[in-house]
Write a structure and sequence with these properties.
Oligomer: heterodimer
Shape of chain A: globular
Number of strands of chain A: 10
CATH topology of chain B: Ubiquitin-like (UB roll)
Number of helices of chain A: 9
Helix content of chain A: 25-40%
CATH topology of chain A: TIM Barrel
CATH architecture of chain A: Alpha-Beta Barrel
Distance between the termini of chain A: 49 Å
CATH class of chain B: Alpha Beta
Structural class of chain A: alpha/beta
Strand order of the largest sheet of chain A: 3-10-9
Largest sheet of chain A: 3 strands, parallel
Radius of gyration of chain A: 21 Å
Radius of gyration of chain B: 13 Å
Helix content of chain B: under 10%
Order of helices and strands of chain A: EEEHEHEHEHEHEHEHEHH
């Protein structure tokens, strides 16, 4: 069976989804389930002081017993903040070590700071974390992150939350060709065809949040993404036909056409 | 009272009750469990960092908090 293996654990779904920007927890849960995703990202934030104690929490709605939670470092701009956030996440999730590292470099573009990302990844890996790392589509950065022991390389397709799709398939191709760990496109997917293209390129998975949460109908889009990732994966495995600009080869027999051979 | 910085905000928390135990001195320290109860967070799925170091749940009963301590109390929320 074709499964996604990350840090020695196998997953049936190659779609990873975020849990942000939904209207409420009910919609979050329904969309996550429609997506079929097994790995779902969560953020770690200060608890609201003075909040209603009866208020449900995300982990009640998406229990770690049913999903592989992937705590992230969204919003972290320094090595220290990212490392502290994931140490807290590990404590919060009872020693869970699979994490998504992102160290951002700029609040306007949310572009990753690769130098700081490398430093943070090194510290986390030494401390026993299994680091899935958000990065740019720079093949050298991807290679260095793999060399220091990241368990998945997650290059952007375009900027976080932009929905601009896959802007540099050629760089992604180089990263995929070189990597021995899973390559998961993280960020930039806008609609189902983007996800399919990522998978057709040979990505091992796709991680998205806004493309689903910001759709007019998030639950329906979650279902569309599930199918797109599956379709893209199957197309990749099937191996596409070569592209030919001008070499006519009809699918139907050329012999036995009635009437005149008008094409001649 | 003990003055703590919790999630970036100053919090005045009553010192643990020293009346019932004659051996307890005035500098009795608060533990994390008492702080969480004071804040209405008991039973919540949270993680705690004190002065930059994780406090494992197994240490929540240890009287460790003193005035000036900086605490972060976090939860999981929706995110990408």
């Amino acid at each position: 069976m074709d499964r996604l293996v990350i840090a020695d654990k196998a997953y049936s779904s190659r779609l990873l989804v975020g849990t942000g920007k939904y209207r409420d927890f009910d919609e979050t849960r329904t969309a996550v389930d429609a997506s079929g995703a097994e790995i779902i990202t969560v953020a770690i934030r200060r608890t609201n002081l003075g909040q209603n104690p009866e208020e449900p929490s995300l982990l009640d709605v998406l229990p770690p017993s049913q999903y592989t939670l992937l705590p992230n470092t969204a919003g972290c701009y320094t090595v220290e903040d990212a490392v502290r956030t994931l140490r807290l996440a590990r404590e919060l999730l009872d020693g869970h070590t699979l994490v998504k590292l992102e160290v951002l470099g700029d609040p306007k573009t949310l572009y990753p700071n690769i130098v700081e990302t490398l430093k943070a990844a090194e510290i986390l890996i030494k401390e026993g974390f299994q680091v899935m790392v958000y990065t740019s589509d720079d093949p050298i950065a991807a290679r260095q992150l793999e060399e220091i022991g990241c368990v998945a390389i997650m290059p952007l397709a375009s900027l976080i939350g932009s929905g601009m799709g896959i802007l540099n398939p050629w760089n992604l191709q180089i990263i995929i060709d070189n990597a021995k760990v899973p390559v998961i496109v993280d960020a930039g997917v806008g609609t189902a065809s983007d996800a399919a293209i990522a998978m057709e390129l040979g990505c091992d998975g796709v991680l998205m949040n806004t493309a689903i949460a910001a759709a007019q109908n998030p639950v329906l889009m979650a279902s569309a993404m599930k199918k797109a990732v599956e379709a893209g994966r199957e197309a990749y495995l099937a191996g596409r036909m070569p592209k030919k600009l001008y070499s006519a080869s009809p699918s139907s027999p050329v012999e036995g056409v009635i009437g005149n051979m008008s094409g001649k | 009272m003990i003055q703590l910085i919790v999630n970036g905000q100053s919090q005045l928390v009553p010192s643990p009750d020293s009346g019932t135990d004659s051996g307890t001195t005035n500098d009795a320290r608060l533990n994390i469990r008492q702080l969480l109860e004071h804040m209405g967070l008991q039973g919540k799925r949270i993680a705690v960092e004190r002065n930059g170091e994780i406090v494992p749940r197994s240490q929540f009963d240890q009287p460790m908090l003193a005035s000036g301590d900086k605490l972060e109390i976090v939860v999981a929320v929706g995110g990408g």
